[in-house]
Structures are given as C-alpha cells and as structure tokens.
Design goal:
This protein is α+β, with helices and mostly antiparallel strands. The protein is built from one helix and five strands; from the N terminus they run βββββα. The protein is about 15% helix and about 25% strand. Strands 1-5-4 form a three-stranded mixed beta sheet, with no helix packed on it.
C-alpha cells in the first residue's frame, strides 16, 4: 500500500515513488478456514476487484483495487477453497473446532 493503513505507514511509503510497483491480490471469492467471534470453520470471503471478474494476471489500473492506494491488482482468477482444518495438536482445541470435527470426521478421514 502507498498510503497509511490503520494508522500506520506501510514500508512502501518510505521508498522513492518511481522505484515501486504495488499490487493488491484479488480473487473470485470462495471460502477460507476462519475463526470469527464464537464461530469457526469454512467461511465465505475473498477480495474481489472492482468491476468484472478477470482472468489471472496483473492489471495496472489503481481503480480496480478494492482497498488502499496501489498501482494495480494481481488477480488470482480463481475462487478460494477452504483447507481441511488441523486436528489434534496443538491442544486444546477450541469448542467450535471440536464440534466441526465431530460432524465431519468420516469426510476428513477419507481425504
């Protein structure tokens, strides 16, 4: 980012403007394994660019970036998929993970 974020100056702000190229990574949405408040598990998310969904590539158009000040986007061009959650170590597991594992144990063992 080339502008303050959450009250902090990113490192790129200290480099000569002519010597940097900043890109925001975007995707087509999907799921990630997340823990938010009391819930955990696969949750919808992603960082889409502003405008039409693009194939994978670099687009030097700052107007496509959904957050912050950058030179353009690096579009992954694919949806995100949630990974299988880790089981066991490190202990103890949060209650929401225990609940998820008990519901999906057979599916997880077949992977």
């Amino acid at each position: 980012m080339q502008a303050p974020q959450f009250g902090f100056d990113p490192a790129a702000m200290y480099l000569p403007a002519k010597e940097i190229l900043s890109l925001e990574v975007t995707d087509r949405g999907g799921e990630s394994w997340s823990s938010i408040d009391e819930a955990c598990g696969p949750m919808k998310g992603g960082v889409g660019d502003k405008g039409a969904t693009k194939p994978r590539g670099i687009y030097l158009d700052p107007n496509l970036a959904p957050f912050g000040k950058v030179d353009g986007i690096f579009s992954l061009g694919v949806p995100l998929t949630a990974s299988t959650p880790a089981a066991g170590e490190p202990a103890p597991l949060p209650p929401c993970r225990i609940k998820f594992l008990s519901k999906h144990q057979a599916t997880l063992q077949n992977r």
